[in-house]
Specification:
By secondary structure, this protein is an alpha+beta fold. Helices cover 27% and strands 19% of the residues. It has two domains: 117 residues, Homing Intron 3 (I-Ppo) Encoded Endonuclease, Chain A (Alpha-Beta Complex), CATH 3.90.75; 33 residues, no CATH class.
């Protein structure tokens, strides 16, 4: 499955890539200040899109969370920082897979607030993620006209319409 032109890793490949780091985390043997409780517990299931679906508490917004010493942490942020590294907290972590319960660090990308809105689930966001027009023509640079409202228009379709073929 492709999102934003970027091939996502499968869950298995990823688990292997991060195996060394994940093992102590999942076994509850990390030496970090913030430690996940319940040693040995499996925290997520891998689905066919490669999403790591959080199996523990899901908050009202749909994000996985867990508590450590009376503090609440968002699971996806924790996994990103633990496996990839710290990021600028002024920026947002965006789910490329649109699945908020997912904690797969490869499905997360640090984006500016503006970019996050563009990629959101609004019409503009959905349209900007499509790689083809609804007739199946590619939204390549040459074939795409961006209208004043920021929407993309397929030039092939415009041409076909002009030629009376649509
Ligand atoms: Zn995902
Ligand atoms: Zn088209």
């Amino acid at each position: 499955m492709k999102y934003l032109g970027r091939v996502l890793w499968s869950g298995e490949e990823l688990a292997e890539k991060y195996a060394r780091k994940l093992k102590p985390l999942l076994a509850g043997r990390t030496h970090r200040k913030k430690e996940l409780k319940n040693p040995g517990k499996t925290y997520f299931d891998v689905n066919k899109n490669g999403c790591w679906n959080w199996k523990m508490r899901i908050n009202a917004d749909g994000y996985g969370e867990f508590g450590i010493n009376a503090s609440c942490y968002l699971a996806y942020k924790y996994f990103y920082e633990f496996l990839v590294g710290p990021y600028d907290k002024k920026l947002r972590l965006d789910h490329l897979c649109r699945n908020r319960a997912c904690v797969n660090p490869e499905h997360l990308e640090v984006v500016t607030q503006q970019e996050n809105v563009r990629r959101g689930n609004g019409l503009a966001g959905i349209n900007s993620r499509k790689t083809q027009c609804f007739r199946g023509h590619n939204f390549s640079e040459e074939n795409t006209y961006v209208n004043p409202r920021g929407g993309r228009v397929c030039k092939t379709c415009i041409r076909l319409k002009r030629q009376g073929k649509l």
